[in-house]
Amino acid sequence: MAGGREEKDLVHLNAIHVENVKKERRYQKLHTEFSINPYRKIHVLPDKPMCRKPPESLSEDTTYIDAYRRVRMAPILKYPRPITESQEIGWFASELPPHDRQDPRLNFPRLLVHNMKTTVR
């Protein structure tokens, strides 16, 4: 018992272990459903052209296809309202009015300027 420390008996160690197990079970989340990450690119490689192996018949997993399409959708189609502050700009925007080319305040056409080269004699 050097340094003022007492040795812990087996009952005390077992109580500490039981308390740790209870804490782990309280915060542990068990995942039973697994799927492919739709945010990661998938590289599908076809069979070799001279392969005699019959093609496998795979059943389509519609949950992955739906998740993949949802990831690729625009935010306006995914959510009813803007999620972030930057999405608020242009969320409810309609089309712009037609551009009037005769209005000199808004129309700045390019002017073609022909530079004539002068030769020094």
Please provide a written account of the structure.
By secondary structure, this protein is an all-alpha fold. The protein has a domain at 60-85. The chain has 4 helices and no strands. The protein has helices spanning 10-27, 62-72, 75-78, 85-88. The mean pLDDT is 80. It comes from Xiphophorus maculatus. Pfam families: FAM183. Belongs to the CFAP144 family.
Question: What are the main properties of this structure?
Answer:
mainly alpha; 121 residues; 4 helices; single chain; elongated
Q: What's the overall geometry?
A: elongated
Q: Uncertain segments of ≥5 residues (pLDDT<50)? A: none
Helical residues, percent: 25-40%
Would you count the extended β strands for me?
0
Mean pLDDT: 80
- Strand percentage, roughly? under 5%
Total helical elements:
4
Protein name: Cilia and flagella associated protein 144
Family: Belongs to the CFAP144 family.
Subcellular location: Cell projection, Cilium; Cytoplasm, Cytoskeleton
Keywords: Cell projection, Cytoplasm, Cytoskeleton
Question: What's the helix and strand layout?
Answer:
Layout: H1 10-27, H2 62-72, H3 75-78, H4 85-88
In short:
It is built from four helices and no strands. It is mainly alpha-helical and 121 residues long.
